[in-house]
Each structure stands twice: as C-alpha cells, then as structure tokens.
Amino acid sequence: MPPTSRRLQLLAGGASLLIVPFLFIGGPDWSSGPVYKSAWNLGHILLFALVTLAVRPWQWLQGWRLWMAVTGALLAAGIVIELLQYGHNREVDWRDLLRNLIGSWLIIAWRPLFFSGNRKNAGSVLVATLTTLLLVSELGTTAQVAARQFQMNRQLPALYDFQREEPSPFWSGPLTPSEAHAPEGSKSLKINLGTETYSGVSLHNVPSDWRGFATLSLTLFNPDSRPLSVTLRINDVEHDRGDNAYSDRFNLRLDLEPGVNTFTIPLATIEQAPDQRPMDMSEIRRLGLFATRLPEPRSVYLLALALD
Fold first, then answer.
1. In the prediction, which pLDDT does 135 show?
2. Residue 167: is the preceding peptide bond cis (ω within 30°)?
3. Rounded CA gap, 164 and 303, in Å?
4. pLDDT tens digits for range 51-89
C-alpha cells in the first residue's frame, strides 16, 4: 500500500473512532429543534465514508460483489445501531440506514475515478453521479429545513402562517387547512376532536423566543350550537426534558361559545405558571389545544394565533 494511502487509512480510522461514540451520547433529543436534528443526521454520511476508507473493502471484493457485500453489511449494522440507540433513549430514524449507505457508496463510487490505475468508463461516472445526487438530496433537505425555520422566526408576532398548505412540519394531531370561517384572504385550521381521554393538536415547531411581547392572542371558531371546553397548554424546553409534570407548565381552560371566541393571555401569567420556577420565555417549545373525554366527536377551527 502506498504511504499516502496508508496515512489516509489511519486518519480515517482514527476519525471514525472519535465519531462513533456520538451515535449513542450527546446530540439532539426529542425536544431539539429541526435544524439541529437535520444537521446532526448528516454525521452518518461522514462517519460511514470514513469507515469505508479505513476498512478498504475493495481489498477483498470487486464489482457487484463489493456493492452487495457492503450494502448488506451496512444495513445489518445500521439496524443494530438504531435498536441500540433506542435503548439509550434516542429516537429511531430508519432513514439513517440510507445515510449510512450514502457515505459508503460515495467512497466506493468515486475511488476508481481518482485511482489512476483504473480506466474511467461511463458506467463508473454514472454511478458516482448518482451517489452524489443522493448526497445533494440530503444536503438539500437540511437546507430546506434551515430556510423554513428562518422564515418561521421572521413571521413573528404570528406564531403560525395560516397560508401554509401543509401544517405537518409544525403541527401534530388531527387537523387540516380549511377556508371555512377564516378571515377574508386567509385560512383556518380545522381541529377534529375525538372521544379518547385526550384529543387535540400540538404546535411543536413554534418560534421559541417570546421575550419582548406582552400577550398571546388566539381566536377559535366553534361551529356547533353547543359550548365546547378545550385546554390550552404551553411549555418550554426544560419541561420537555423533565418529568412533564402538570404543575410545570401553563394550562388554561377555554370555554368556547358558539361562533367566534378570542382569548388574550398575558405572557407574564404564562411565565409564572410552573410551580417551582419561571418558564423560560426564550425557549418555548410546545403549544397544545386538547379536549378531555368528549361524549362525541367535535370540531373547532383555529383562526388566529399570535403574540402582541
């Protein structure tokens, strides 16, 4: 092995050993923001590119056998890693399996093009191009997440842009965009409430820094002729990473009469809601609306949600 190749192998092996522990320690948790999670996930590509450089599987296999063996081995290793991560209170992300493969495939595909002893052909260039496109796709996903978060933070004092066609990057739960009962030129979010113990939605991707504002305002429309009670809950990052105690967050019952209902809540009240500490108004993490043990399914429309 040429001295340069040997040094590259040793450097790749050393870097891999330094990175491997971070598969199980540190990094984002379930309450971390989307940009941090997305950027961290790119580390899988780097790690398995380095591992491939260190192991040099082309020493033993060539052609399709090399590709099949590496792919099979990485899929098996990736499944084991994801299961071990789950045991260490980390979220399972099966797309990490693809990221692992992309890292290794990049090295296997591009190595022949930079190794002067191998003749470059159209097939090798095509494979290298395809693996690069997979990398670009992952980088593009992270860039899209970053752009979306930047736009979200610029939309303050609005906490949600009701013109969005797809609420799932921001909300979880049974809700759909609607034009019903919305102000002219805007849209609403229809929230479908079921009969389970707790039924509702959560704004889990929300501008986090509420400092500098005085009140939270939300407008809901009750389409039925009967009143409806829902609960508004708000918590910060510390609550998410704690034991999620009821007394450690803001909870407020909202009694909705038929038609339009607007509520204005002082942020000072929200800040002082936890029993043992003030809420961190620079790290708001989640806002939820839910009903409890409804006798029958109901619907409610969220028309506005903003700070002032």
1. 96
2. no
3. 13
4. 999 999 999 999 899 999 999 999 998 898 888 776 655
pLDDT in tens, 127-179: 999 999 999 999 999 999 999 888 888 889 999 999 998 999 999 999 999 99
Place of tokens 């040094």: 7
Q: What is the mean pLDDT of residues 199-216?
A: 95
State how beta strands 198-203 and 284-292 pair: antiparallel
156 CB-near residues (< 8 Å, 6+ apart): 207, 307
Instruction: Provide DSSP, the chain.
Output: --HHHHHHHHHHHHHHHHHGGGGTSSS--TTS-HHHHHHHHTHHHHHHHHHHHHH-GGGT--HHHHHHHHHHHHHHHHHHHHHHHHHTT----THHHHHHHHHHHHHHHHHHHH-TTS---HHHHHHHHHHHHHHHHHHHHHHHHHHHHHHHHHTTTBSS-TT-S--TTTEESSEEEE-TTPPTT--EEEEEE-SSSEEEEEE-S-----TT--EEEEEEEE-SSS-EEEEEEEEEHHHHTTT--GGGSEEEEEEEPSEEEEEEEEHHHHHT-SSSS---TT-EEEEEEEEES-SS-EEEEEEEEEE-
